[in-house]
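WP5 quarterly update. Target: Protein translocase subunit SecE. Source organism: Nicoliella spurrieriana. Length: 57 aa.
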Amino acid sequence: MRFINFLKSVIQEMKIVFWPNAKQTREDTSTVLGVTILFAIFFAVVDSLVQVFLKLL
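Structure tokens (predicted):
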């Protein structure tokens, strides 16, 4: 019985969930990929600088 109540509540909740359209999904995906690439570049540069600094020691 508890499982049935759980499923009913899940169905009710899924009806009020905001589902993004294809354009919003593409925009959000592009943002995430862009930020990920920027962070990767940043950390690669920092890593290279740290390596150069440590070699000087």
